[in-house]
Amino acid sequence: MVVSNIPPLKASTDITPIKATGASALMDSLRLHGVEHIFGYPGGAILPIYDELYLAEQRGDVQHILVRHEQGASHAADGYARATGKVGVCFGTSGPGATNLVTGIATAHMDSIPMVIITGQVARAAIGSDAFQETDIYGITIPIVKHSYVARNAEDIPTIIAEAFHLASTGRPGPVLVDIPKDVGLEEFDYIPVQPGNVKLSGYRPTFKGNPRQITSALDLISTAHQPLLYVGGGAILSNAHEQVHQLAELFQLPVTTTLMGLGAFDEHNALSVGMLGMHGTAYANFAVSECDLLIAVGARFDDRVTGKLDEFASHAKVIHIDIDPAEVCKNRRPEVPIVGDVARVLEQMLKRAQELEITQDNAITQDWLARIDRWKKDYPLTVPHPEDCIAPQEVIVEIGRQAPNAYYTTDVGQHQMWSAQFLTMGPRRWISSAGLGTMGYGLPAAMGAKVGVPDEEVICISGDASFQMNLQELATLAQYNIQAKTVIVNNGWQGMVRQWQQTFFGERYSSSNMQKGMPNFEMLAEAFGVKGIVVNERSQLKDAIAQMLAHDGPVLLDVHVKKDENCYPMIAPGKNNAQMLGLPKKAYEQNEPEVIICSHCEAKNSHQNNFCPECGTKL
Fold first, then answer.
1. Which of 70, 134, 155, 395 is labelled catalytic?
2. pLDDT at site 601
3. Is the model's pTM score more than 0.70?
4. How far apart, in Å, do the first and last CA atoms of the chain sit?
5. Known catalytic residue: 313?
6. In the annotation, is 497 catalytic?
């Protein structure tokens, strides 16, 4: 007799076999790994697993969130993982169910998000026969997962799940796919649980501790740099290294810039913060990276949206690169000091070593550099326009941030995403956005997953009218489970970023970017799903509408109509370096021209980037 309702094991030493099916062993393995929420959608090949899921829900082991599209499930699991730091889990059936998960898997892969994806598959005997709803999801997802499994036998499932969670959450995190044929879910075997972490993977040995000699070399560079810059990426968030980043910055008085993925790793209210750098980063961050003499990359990968023209990125700087993934070190930029290891642990080592060597920063060395950055901040601040006849989109972002300063924020992709990155200030894990893949339709289901993961926190999705329409069906999921995430549509009637590029680089030929024809009444649409809808057309309505949204006991969709042709600046054009930004006063380019310093000894002309005169060696 097969036992479906497996009783929870009381101790890790309990190795008494229990007769079980593959599906029941799967559900118990997920329980052992602390899974409390699963996002998914059933179908034929995964029905044996859903049958066991029914029993697990009856026992109170887990809650399943029924999404309206599998893409919503993958994004919700992703948002859950980013908000909580835990592994997100989603289910999908074979064929179209599995392929609908692909965009979410790729999103998680690009941003290094820990997920375990369980897909149903046709029975083993039918694999390769082009059976109904058969798709080789294992093969399809190979380029976009950290690892993949096909469970060929039920007895393999406990080990596979333990390995999947270990792989997803250690080293550089990422998504892991487990494909389970239907008959494997029904197959009986003698089940012995595999406890979390109790796995041995040949050849998988992530490096966590940094090389001591490299750490000493890095400290030598940091303590003598005149114009250093700390460049912090998503690896610092994934490693929970925000406190170590803060301590290092304060110890050596390092100005700090973050990538889109690194937002929240450093307090932007701190005087050392220069905000986000890159294509739509702050002018002062982009000037600083263009003129620094030492760039300390922490959990960042030198991606193209940050670097602009790569061979001119931080071209005067020596580079220290800290990353847990050795494949990222030297991939785009060769550092003088490469350090492979977990970001938090490496920074702890650096701080400890600095204390042992009694290394402290001579603040006079960087005083002029910090003062220069402060002048850039004053001369080229981010500004919020206030047009007379309409609402500026930046106004919406700023007011949301003012009323909900401690919220978890998700976004979709486009202008609203960049404005949110520019004007919101968040703590660690409170910024949830598709950075590497740039996935429209991500924001709403990600907010859904985040709110499930942190139910006592305020969760707000900031979307655009085009992005929102890609996964609007998840309003039904919000309504069914009363998931109290709030969604704000910054509605300009366009694919805003596409329109901006067409205006700037394609002769104002607006091909297929206008969304006004066919746009639904979002207020009525929300109400049709059972979600409260609010619409704002006038500036005078904005403040009260946001307050009403935040106060409502339930999900809300707030549709704010904004200026239609507002552009997002600063902006680095393709092929340009970080100092060559559009949307700044002409003096910005003049300010960034290299300063000439006359050597006091030999009177040779030197660039301000030089610490010593190359002609005679005199310190400048």
1. 70
2. 67
3. yes
4. 84
5. no
6. yes
